[in-house]
Amino acid sequence: MKQFAKKIIAAAMSLALVGAASACSSKGASSGTGSAKSDDAKKVTIGVIQYATHPSLDDCYTGFQEGLKESGYEEGKNVTIDFQNAQADNSKSDLMAQTMVSKKYNLLMAIATPSAMSAYGAAKNANIPVVFTAVSDPVGAQLVSSLQKPGSNCTGSSDVLPLDKQVKMIRAFLPKAKKIGVLYTTSEPNSISQLKTLKEVAPKYNFDVVDIGITNSSQVASGAATLVAKGVDCVNNFTDNNVVNNLSTLLQATDKAKIPVFGSEVEQVKNGCLAADSIDYIALGKETGKMAAKILKGEAKASDTPVYVVSEGKPVYNKSVLAKFGLTLPSDYSGAESVG
Question: Which CATH number is 255's domain given?
Answer without folding.
Answer: 3.40.50.2300
